[in-house]
Specification:
The complex is a heterodimer.
Chain A lengths: L4 E3 L2 E5 L4 E6 L4 E9 L5 E8 L4 E4 L2 E6 L4 E6 L8 E9 L4 E4 L3 E6 L1
Chain B lengths: L3 E4 L2 E4 L5 E7 L6 E7 L5 E8 L5 E2 L8 E7 L2 E6 L8 E8 L6 E3 L3 E5 L1
Parallel strand pairs in B: 2-11
Antiparallel strand pairs in B: 1-3, 3-8, 4-5, 4-9, 5-6, 7-8, 9-10, 9-11
The chains are: A mainly beta, B mainly beta.
């Protein structure tokens, strides 16, 4: 499977600012998922957007999906220091119907 | 709900020894579990798909004789790293798909260090 790309690789912002992360994928998808990983820990599922959806909200999270460009974005509004973590997109689909992770964005929110 | 418990959280072993990592689904049955490997500051790479009662499916480039996977019950999958070498040092994570919700739940990961 081919890994997707995320940008930026690292993002540092001040508390209260918004953080936007972008993800591109390579195969056709059924859905795209975003996960969070604190250092040295497992992944926590944040939000899932289906291929027929264009935007989805969950609390301070907003996800968009553009299947024509094979891209997605995750927006975290009013960021907090506790949001500091790595964020990964994961595309589900393709012939193997498996989860393929992007390269991840390391977000640092400065208090 | 839908929790996967992974143990140990970290392990240090000598070169040439074998290490077993366990993943248990605590409140659901996992017909299929997935094993990932993650190097520092990198993404997760799928190693193999573990199917209850049958042989695991390995991704290209993953040695099935080195990374033994057993999924003998609907709540337990194990990954054994045999004859470990320093280059096997990595973070190993298991996951299971949550039926009906399309998302996945992940174990907390195992940090393996081979010295």
């Amino acid at each position: 499977s081919q890994q997707g790309e995320e940008d930026p690789q690292a993002l540092s912002i001040q508390e209260g600012e918004n953080a936007t992360m972008n993800c591109s994928y390579k195969t056709s998808i059924n859905n795209l998922q975003w996960y969070r990983q604190n250092s040295g820990r497992g992944l926590v599922h944040l939000i899932l957007i289906r291929s027929n959806e264009r935007e989805k909200h969950s609390g301070r999270l907003r996800v968009t999906l553009d299947t024509s460009k094979k891209s997605s974005s995750l927006l975290i509004t009013a960021s907090r220091a506790a949001d500091t973590a790595s964020y990964f997109c994961a595309a589900f689909g393709g012939s193997a119907r498996q989860l393929t992770f992007g390269s991840g964005t390391q977000l640092t929110v400065l208090p | 709900g839908a929790v996967v418990s992974q143990h140990p959280s970290w392990v240090i072993c000598k070169s040439g020894t074998s290490v077993k990592i366990e993943c248990r689904s605590l409140d659901f049955q996992a017909t299929t579990m997935f094993w990932y490997r993650q190097f520092p500051k990198q993404s997760l790479m799928l190693m193999a798909t573990s199917n209850e009662g049958s042989k695991a499916t390995y991704e290209q480039g993953v040695e099935k004789d080195k990374f033994l996977i057993n999924h003998a019950s609907l709540t337990l999958s194990t990954l054994t790293v045999t004859s470990a070498h320093p280059e096997d040092s990595s973070f190993y994570i298991c996951s299971a798909r949550i039926t009906g919700l399309h998302g996945y739940t992940f174990g907390s990961g195992t940090r393996l260090t081979v010295v």
